[in-house]
Amino acid sequence: MNFYGWNKLSFLDYPKKVSTLVFTKGCNLRCPWCHNPSLVKYSLMKKISEKSIIDFIKEKNKNQRWIDAIVICGGEPTIHKELLSFLIKIKEHTGVLIKIDTNGTNPHLLKTAIRLGIVDYIAMDVKSDLILRQSKLHEEYLKSIDIVKTANDYEFRLTCVPGFVNEENIDMIMKPFYGSKILYLQQFHNDSKMIDKIMKEVEPFQLEQLIKWQKKFNKCFNKIVIRE
Ligand code: SF4
Question: How many domains does the chain have?
Answer without folding.
Answer: 1
